[in-house]
Amino acid sequence: MPSKYKLTYFTLRGLAEPIRYILAYRNIEFEDIRLDLDTWNSSVKQTSPFGKIPILEIDGKKLTQSRAICRYLAKEAGLAGKDAWEDLQIDIIVDTIDDVRYAIVDYGYFSDEKSKAAKKGPLLNETIPFYFKKFDTIVSENKGHLANKKLTWADIYFVAISEHLSLMVEKDILESYPNLKALRKTVQAYPGIKKHIEKRPADINISF
């Protein structure tokens, strides 16, 4: 009997979207539970192993930590490295993506309006270009991918996370980077991922 998957997260993409992408890539059907903050705080948070989400349940077993979940699913899907060295290359990219994510989340979630206005310029003109120029070059030198010259979960993680970050800064952060835009197109063209994008809730849907 196939395993039963249930993913719980807020009503947005965020850290759950890479998990959704990998499940979709594998054509795995899953229950996609999206919570508002009140429901999370009142009735779900206390059921999480560490009080965090996303939570992926596989046959009733609750798993947390988005990157750990992605790494596990990637190994099952053939999206991990073939050895420890290749896995290291993937992890370097994923951890660097999170460096960018932390900067944007700090801007988007935890700053008052005055602070946001002061931070937006440096974020868009310095922080994001610093990293994304390097990512763009890496893709150009790796046969269209971010690691190991092949599709890995680093590519999927990047595309899924960059979607959410673009929403946060109200700008397509890949617009100036042709190789990254091509990578997004490649990842989102996989049939399972394409289907996921087409059917995900309209209130968080976006197209560039």
UniProtKB/TrEMBL annotation:
Residues 83-205 form the GST C-terminal domain. The keyword Transferase applies. Its EC number is 2.5.1.18. It comes from the Eukaryota. It catalyses: RX + glutathione = an S-substituted glutathione + a halide anion + H(+). GO terms for molecular function: glutathione transferase activity. One of its GO terms (biological process) is glutathione metabolic process. Keywords: Transferase. InterPro entries: Glutathione-S-Trfase_C-like, Glutathione-S-Trfase_C_sf, Glutathione_S-Trfase, Glutathione_S-Trfase_N, GST_C, GST_superfamily, Thioredoxin-like_sf. The keyword Transferase applies. Residues 3-81 form the GST N-terminal domain. Belongs to the GST superfamily. Sigma family. PANTHER family: GLUTATHIONE S-TRANSFERASE, HEMATOPOIETIC PROSTAGLANDIN D SYNTHASE. This is glutathione transferase.
